[in-house]
Amino acid sequence: MTYDGIVSRYLNRPLSRPAARALKGSPLTPNAVTTFTVLLAFATGAMIAAGWNVAGGVLIQVVSVVDGVDGELARLKAQATRFGAVFDAVTDRYGDAAMLAGMTVYAVRFESHPHAEFVGMLALGAALIVSYSRARIEADLPDVAAGGRLDSVFGLASRDVRSLIAAVGTVAGQCYWTLIVLAVISSATIAWRLAYLRVTVGARRYQ
Q1: DSSP result, 50-110
Q2: Rounded to whole angstroms, how far apart are CA atoms 204 and 201?
Q3: 72-88: per-residue pLDDT in tens?
Q4: Burial of 100 by CB count in 10 Å (0-12 exposed, 13-18 middle, 19+ buried)?
Q5: pTM: predicted TM-score of the whole model, two decimal places
Q6: What DSSP line would sit under 139-202, residue for residue?
Q7: Quick one: how far is CA 111 from the chain centroid?
Q8: How many CB atoms lie within 10 A of CB 11?
Q9: For residue 207, what is the enclosing H or E element?
Q10: Which DSSP letter does residue 204 get?
Q11: Which DSSP letter does residue 25 get?
C-alpha cells in the first residue's frame, strides 16, 4: 500500500500521474522507468558534486516526481509485480545515497564547515534506517498498517518531504546545513516510529 506524504499528494502525484498516462501507450515498461530514475539520481549526485548546485537541486525534485511514474505506469498497464516493487525500493535507496553523496562532496569542496564527511554519513545512515524501519514495520506488523494507522507512524518527515528539503537546500548552496537538517528529522522520524510502536504495540510476543 502506498502512503503519500504531503509533497507527493499535492506536488509530485499531480505531475507523475499525467506522465504515466502519457507513457501508457508506449513500449516502456515500469522497470525501464525505474532504471531511468536511478540513473537520473546518479547523474544528479554527480552534478551536485561537480558544483552545479542549482541544476542539481532542481533535479533532486525532478527525481522525486519521476520516482512515482513507474508505480503509476505499472497500475495503468497491469504490469505490477513483486519483483518490480522490490527493484523500485532497492534502486530508490541507491538513488538517495547517490544524491546525498553528491551533497556531501559539495559541502566538502565548496562550503567552509568542519567535518562535512561525518555530517553526510549521518544523513545517509539515518535515511537508510528510516526506509528500513518502514519496511520492517510493514513486514512484521501488518495489522498496524490496517485502517490507516500506518499514517500515524509514517507521516513525520516522509521521503518526499526530505527530498524537497534536500532540493531547496542544494539550490541555495547550503548542503552542509541541509544534511544536518536531514539527519535530525530522519532520526526524529525513527525515534517517533519506535515510540509510537512501543506505546501502541508494546511487548507483543511472536506466536
Answers
A1: TT-HHHHHHHHHHHHHHTTHHHHHHHHTT---HHHHHHHHHHHHHHHHHHHHHHHHHHHHH
A2: 6
A3: 999 999 999 999 999 99
A4: buried
A5: 0.91
A6: HH-HHHHGGGTHHHHH-TT-HHHHHHHHHHHHHTT-HHHHHHHHHHHHHHHHHHHHHHHHHHT-
A7: 25
A8: 16
A9: none
A10: P
A11: T
